[in-house]
Amino acid sequence: METYQGHVRTPTDAILLFEACRLGLLPRVQRRLSEKERQQIKSGSVFVWDEREAGMRRWTDGKSWSASRVSGSFLTYREMEGKRGGIHLPPLPQGTSAARRARERSNQQSDGSKGESDEDGPDGYRYKPDGLMKQSFSITTQNGQHLHLISYYARSHPTATDLRQPSADATLRHIRPPKNMYPESTVNESTGGVPAVTRGPMPGSPYAHSP
């Protein structure tokens, strides 16, 4: 069900995978992941899908994630786990003014939060130790396709040598996305030395389908 195994580091990497899917060299996701497939997600898992083709706009993987952060052209998320033990605040006496109540609650919460580690996330949740990072990238092609990419990597070693980078992958080196197919990308200028533009599914491509 995976589209690719590797580490997507740049928009060029993402667009090369989009183009490899268009040419039928790599598979696009056709549906939502099953429970078993979700459990198989690991560092290096990359998924590409077309909104219309897969019938979905949002990606669901059964995991809990932090709020998104902008990281260059990507949105990045950090895996979370369940809430830590809640802070139980004692009741304030009746008749306490609103201003005093707010002040007292603030002090109690401040005291209760002492000792929290860097693994503490917002709203009482904790970052999952050795959890994954997730990044997303989306683009609308010149012909109106809405394409999405989701990739996962381990926070401890996002550039591990065993994870291929698409732009350095010998099996994808011959691919050159058509100019202007992927708006606002610099992939055409940054892939010097590759052969002529590929414009359709290659003969014998195992995942060939209509663009």
Automatic annotation (TrEMBL):
Highest taxon in the source lineage: Eukaryota
Name by which UniProt lists this protein: Camp independent regulatory protein
Pfam families to which the protein is assigned, alphabetical: Gti1_Pac2
Molecular function as annotated in GO: DNA binding
InterPro entries membership: Gti1/Pac2
Species of the source: Lophium mytilinum
Region of interest (Disordered), residue spans: 82-131, 176-211
